[in-house]
Amino acid sequence: MRRRLIVVFLVPLVLVLTVLGGGYAWSTARGVQQEFYAEQLGDLGYFVTTARQALLTGSSDMFEGEVRRYRELYGTRVMVVDRTGHAWAPRSADPMLDRPEVDAQIRLALSGRRGELPQNALPWQFSDLSLVEPVFDGGDVIGAVVMSASVDVPRAEIGRQWFLIAAVAAVVIAAGLLIVFRLAGWVLRPVRRLDRAMEAIERGDMDARIRDETGPPELHRMILMFNRMADEIERVVARQQEFALNASHELRNPLNALLLRVEVLAADVGAAGAADVEKIREEGERMTRILDTLLGFARGSVSESDFEDVDLTALVARRSRAWQDVAARKAIVFTVDGGGPILSHVDEAVVESALDAVIDNAVKFSPHGGRVELSVRPSDERTRIVVRDHGPGMEAEELEQAADRFWRSTRNQNIPGSGLGLAIAMDLLRSVGGRLAVQSPQGGGLSVIFDLPGANPR
Q: Which residue windows are transmembrane per the record (predicted)?
């Protein structure tokens, strides 16, 4: 987010500086060039006057002396050509006259016309400036003055001006970066505190609050609302934990009393009812484990100490036997396909509870005399439990909502239920590192798949 803020502030600043600085740099270059041209034209006008006198008198000594001193001072070459275009003063050959552009300007000047000034150009496009001015006597052209000046000085001046402009732009950008960094830090500081507080609450630290109210005033209300929300969440969680503890106390006592009565009943019924009593005892003990697990959920999570390598094949077979009496009311048959022991490192009570929720749905939605198929299979380094019924199944668009809380298909509204079975099973499996998937197999019905961790490596 800091990066985006910097880009948002910095890109317009750079664009503005580029436009303004580029315009000012171009204007500066034109000013330096025009000043240079004006100076050369002034000097050229002086030499035209001197050259006229020299040509009329036929003596070039004074003109040559002035030209020599001028070249020593400024490095600029000046000469006069006669009306035939040949060098008149100084009379020595000058390579300047061999340049095509200079020759063209001399012919133009001897015809009585003045050449145009060079167009403005960038410094690296400069070449030596050549100017040719005709010398008139009355209305006749008696010669021309040729001047060739070096552009090193104006080029260096333009470079210096551009360097200053670039330096100023760099300083402004650096100052802008500093201001943007400080501004971004000031704006984002409360947002980062808010993010850290939310992470702390997610980890279970319900005391996390934002104490410092620095930053923009617009964020103060958000911080206030967050603190209020955190207070409300802490209050609700505390009430849930209190309810779980109270429920533990209220449910455990009657359950213990029930188990004691079962033990007394076992002594009275003798061998004839021993099997039924043993089933009741097993279910009572399983209810105790489930109660402990649910209390662990209410406190935050399932303890890792409750995880162990569980034989899923034996667990599925045991739960199918426990549901036989309920299934028999609709003449439903269970089939278990598991082969040998298949281990998974999970909390046994959690998997039992999730499996019971799914089997309950399978029995509920199976037709009279139907079949519920349970299978256990290894899958890569994980294990799978599949519970398949042959009931009405679901449409493809309904499968995505099947595990939502309180969701029920419109076709099954007449069947008793709350729509919580698959949602509870999914939450239970997630707590032990598992996943739940719902599919529509070929032949109708519904398949619920438990994807569970494999055995704990030794």
A: 162-188
